[in-house]
Amino acid sequence: MKPFYDNQFLGVFIYDPINNDTLVKYNSEKYFTPASTTKIATLYTALNVLPKNIPTLKYHTTGDTIYIEGTGDPSLLHPYFKDSTALHFLKGYNHIKLNLNNFKTTAYGPGWAWEDYDAYYQPERSSFPIYGNVLSVYKNDSITITPSFFKNNILAMVAPKARDQHRNIFYNDLNKKDTTVTPFIVDDTLVKSLLDSALNKNVELIIKFPEVNKQTVYSIPTDSILKRMMAVSDNFLAEQLLILSSATLSDTLSLKKAQRYILEHHLADLKQPPRWVDGSGLSRYNLFTPESLVHILKKIYMEQSQERIFDLFPAGGVSGTLTNWYGGINEPYLYAKSGSLGNVYCLSGYLRTKSGKTLIFSFMNNHYKQPTEEIKKRMQLLFENLRDHY
């Protein structure tokens, strides 16, 4: 086994939480690029901060006028969730005044790849997301464009990129049958226009929210967003969940504020504090150790029911990003979050043994040049051995 790993960095930590027993420990205190296993820290934050249902907007009413501001809720008319709670609520008011100046987070995270501006997995972060901050072109018997607001912004042509870098001009070969999802550039005027169109009303942008106590409207169950984030490793949902968490903690939408809160109040006992720069793991600036990820997973294990945990995490051989790997014989035995970037593959989560024990593990591979499939095969052999013999 050793020659295979000679030219890469490998970190492993496998732990039995009931017996407080470390089974495998190799470079477990060293920092690695975690990729999307960063979402485990985001999940833990949401589990500790967010209420049962998503706070979709904050508001204050006076007469037939309503003042509103976003919370970062990603579900409003999202291609998957299609939630319209906020719209139904707002349709009862004649005058809608929208404040977007509570957003203190950049559109892109530190270290995100600039050339991926048109990639489906890198929508912009924002205070009042709508349609998932993406243009979706569905192609079946006919073509459906969502939001239709952009129907005149699509050029029917083949181009190196799906969108102009600096403008919401999109390039799409309408003769191909593939459905396409492309992030759009978010600005205040666009948010107003999309909301105007969705409500069929004129929304007024304001500079500042009145100095009053705000009320909150709640939308879909929080677990529905958490489960989707974990299953398909949705970067946009991960980023917005941290923004949502900050909206729950204060009126300022600051991803850093949510991270700082959870690190200081719930993860102050981490032996190796992470470098944690975004919610999704898109950035290579993130640094976590295997021990830190196991520590967070242990807290989740001790604080949540096993049923909820196994429902939120992808199941090996069954769901999400693990559908084609780590399958059980009659039922899943592994529930975990994977993380992939170029030359990076990590997997952290829970393993159920045949004897009925639950192990917590983190396996981090960085800077390898072999095919990722070979990395996964070796990990799977170890997991199956633990499942069958521990």
TrEMBL record:
Keyword terms, alphabetized: Carboxypeptidase, Hydrolase, Protease
Record-linked InterPro entries: Beta-lactam/transpept-like, Peptidase_S13
Molecular function in Gene Ontology: serine-type carboxypeptidase activity
Xref: Pfam families: Peptidase_S13 (PF02113)
Top-rank lineage group of the source organism: Bacteria
A single GO BP: proteolysis
Family statement: Belongs to the peptidase S13 family.
Name the UniProt record assigns to this protein: D-alanyl-D-alanine carboxypeptidase / D-alanyl-D-alanine-endopeptidase (Penicillin-binding protein 4)
Source organism per UniProt: Cellulophaga baltica
